[in-house]
């Protein structure tokens, strides 16, 4: 007597998306819990009354201003994503690209933000373009963010006279700018990929695909495109730096615009360089420590850090979670044959 499984291939296929959603939800929930537990612990150590008093200083109008400035960042970077998509030759509209860009924020807390590659799946469904053909879009977008933040950090540190006030600011700026230069130079990136393959000697197909994506970066190399991308990125990230400056002023800790921008940018970059999902943990620790070096007490730096992270990172994740199911549904109903 033979035993047969009650599950069918269709059942197994249906369970895979569900298991991925549960896994992603658990990851986001776990990181949010870590974020809250860490800040609650610090707040408890410094005194709840002082921390809550600082939070109560904010009005709902001020919170909305912080969220609006974050939205400026996302919209400008979304426009940059659309510009890169047009340079690549993708037949997508502005609405499509903004939907894909926002929806990808739902996966921002994956290690190294690799979950944002979900945008490639939506593009493949809606345009028929393979992931190999759209991969340069991810590379140039990430490189543009690194370049914009490196420029902002370097300029802010100099203008604020904080060359020695932020330990490692120069190193982080140089690393970010160096990574951006490598990622946007086809020959240089291809050479680095070849050296990495020779050193490791594994995954030949993967390295071949990365080299192919590197060659496609030539499409984004015109000075006009790079200048426009830099401008959009700088304006976007400066908007969030300005939000941090306003928040500190409202809490009675005005350390100056450029100092606030430098601390925000450095902390965001440092958190990302740790490889932690969403930079959670590293960014908050760096921000609190740097505010302390500026003489800001913990009862101010802790709530300021919590609020700016909620209105930037977690606001983006919230937008992503709202947009994700819409992008997923539309991509499934508008699938095209591979081209």
Commentary on this structure:
This protein has 339 residues and is mainly alpha-helical. It has one domain. The chain is built from 13 helices and no strands. The longest helix has 38 residues, at 9-46. The model is unreliable at 1-14 (pLDDT under 50).
Topology diagram in text:
Elements: H1 9-46, H2 48-56, H3 60-88, H4 94-104, H5 118-127, H6 131-159, H7 169-183, H8 186-200, H9 204-215, H10 223-250, H11 257-273, H12 282-293, H13 298-333
Helix pairs in contact: 1-13, 2-13, 3-4, 3-6, 3-10, 3-13, 4-5, 4-13, 5-6, 5-13, 6-7, 6-9, 6-10, 6-11, 8-9, 10-11, 10-13, 11-12, 12-13
Membrane topology: Multi-pass membrane protein
Pfam family, one: LPG_synthase_TM
Keywords: Cell membrane, Membrane, Transmembrane, Transmembrane helix
Short description:
With 339 residues, this protein is mainly α. The protein is built from 13 helices and no strands.
């Amino acid at each position: 007597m033979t035993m047969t499984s009650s599950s069918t291939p269709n059942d197994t296929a249906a369970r895979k998306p569900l298991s991925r959603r549960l896994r992603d939800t658990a990851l986001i929930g776990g990181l949010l819990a870590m974020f809250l537990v860490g800040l609650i612990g610090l707040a408890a150590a410094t005194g709840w009354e002082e921390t809550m008093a600082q939070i109560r200083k904010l009005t709902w109008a001020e919170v909305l201003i912080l969220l609006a400035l974050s939205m400026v960042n996302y919209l400008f970077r979304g426009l940059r994503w659309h510009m890169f998509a047009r340079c690549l030759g993708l037949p997508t509209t502005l609405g499509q690209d903004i939907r894909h860009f926002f929806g990808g924020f739902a996966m921002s807390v994956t290690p190294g933000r690799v979950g944002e590659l979900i945008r490639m799946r939506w593009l493949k469904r809606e345009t028929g373009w393979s992931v190999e053909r759209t991969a340069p879009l991810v590379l140039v977008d990430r490189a543009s963010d690194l370049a914009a933040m490196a420029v902002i950090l370097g300029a802010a540190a100099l203008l604020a006279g904080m060359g020695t006030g932020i330990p490692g600011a120069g190193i982080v700026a140089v690393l970010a700018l160096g990574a951006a230069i490598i990622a946007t130079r086809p020959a240089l990136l291809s050479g680095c990929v070849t050296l990495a393959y020779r050193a490791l000697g594994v995954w030949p197909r993967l390295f071949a695909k990365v080299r192919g994506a590197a060659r496609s970066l030539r499409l984004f190399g015109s000075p006009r495109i790079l200048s426009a991308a830099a401008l959009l990125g700088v304006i976007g990230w400066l908007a969030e730096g300005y939000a941090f400056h306003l928040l500190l002023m409202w809490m009675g800790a005005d350390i100056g615009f450029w100092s606030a921008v430098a601390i925000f940018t450095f902390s965001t970059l440092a958190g990302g360089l740790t490889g932690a999902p969403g930079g959670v943990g590293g960014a908050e620790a760096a921000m609190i420590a740097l505010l302390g070096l500026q003489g800001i007490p913990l009862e101010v730096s802790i709530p300021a850090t919590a609020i700016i992270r909620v209105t930037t990172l977690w606001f983006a994740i919230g937008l992503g979670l709202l947009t994700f199911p819409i992008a997923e549904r539309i991509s499934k109903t508008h699938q095209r044959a591979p081209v």
